[in-house]
Fold this sequence. Notes:
Blueprint: E1 9-12, H1 17-28, E2 32-37, H2 48-51, E3 59-62, E4 65-68, H3 70-80, H4 92-118, H5 124-135, H6 139-148, H7 150-167, H8 182-197, H9 201-205, H10 209-220, E5 225-228, H11 231-239, E6 248-249, E7 262-267, E8 276-283, E9 287-294, E10 298-305, E11 309-312
Parallel strand pairs: 1-2, 2-5, 4-10, 6-8
Antiparallel strand pairs: 1-3, 3-4, 7-8, 7-11, 8-9, 9-10
Amino acid sequence: MSDASSEIILHNYPQSPVAEKVRVALGIKALAWRNVEIPRLPPKPMLVPLTGGYRRTPVMQIGADVYCDSQCIIRELERRYSSPSFMPTADAGLLWCLSRWTDGALFDLGVKVVLGAAGDALPQDFAEDRGRLYLGEDWAEGLKQANAELPHLVSQLRAPLSWLDSNLSDGRAFLTGAKAAAIDAQVYHLVWFVRGRWDGGPSMLSEFEHLVRWEDSVRALGHGTSTDLAPEDALAIAQSSESVAESGVVGNDPQGLTVGARVSVSPDVKSGEQVVEGKVRRADAETIVIERTADEVGTVCVHFPRSGYRIDV
Length: 313
């Protein structure tokens, strides 16, 4: 395999808040990575051959291994680059549980505030795409409701921000203490999104002095060191590489998965997204890895979290 097969390649675009989460994570570990810019809206013809249809942002590629969802990305970065750790305290399990709230209910609330405040100013294609992703099949009605209930939604967002501000009031630089953790990136992407994409964001956030100081600390971490890479080159790297994913299914799998079984994987929401199909390479409590083949990339392994994703056999 070529040296390129070990490079971190991040398929993303600058405005993506979830990509910002991963870029901050790369900054925490001061890693070098290759930047492939992808479209904000489908179709994404240079990404789909790698993922088999998964279209969310970002996607991380290392050789012929493709990591979907920031859960998988952060776990894999920690596995490969253990120092400095994303989990600098003894609370890794608790922090992962907390991240399901920051990445789920809390982020969804931020999305409703941003989309609801934008109202009719949103381009129709963007409103339909993001509305369906975050609000479900009845997205148009959901956007109207978010606009009508904006003060209520802001009050719901303001409460957890006040809790975080209180947590930081002892002067600590980061949420768990002196060292940055994955949870800092997982909270920061929501604050970054609200500040940058909602006109009322800066004013609302300004009341939380400790949170603003923490924002500055996270921002100062940077994004590591990135160099641009053409999407065609990323596909070629996958084509010339071999997956390093292990094979096997950990016991007591509740769905009875076995190596080689054909499955489909998709986010566990009714968003109309394309499922990804392939053969089980590995499965455990946290992750499922499926193997698939496409002309443009050869055989690749696509990694998904179990939490938040549906596997159909």
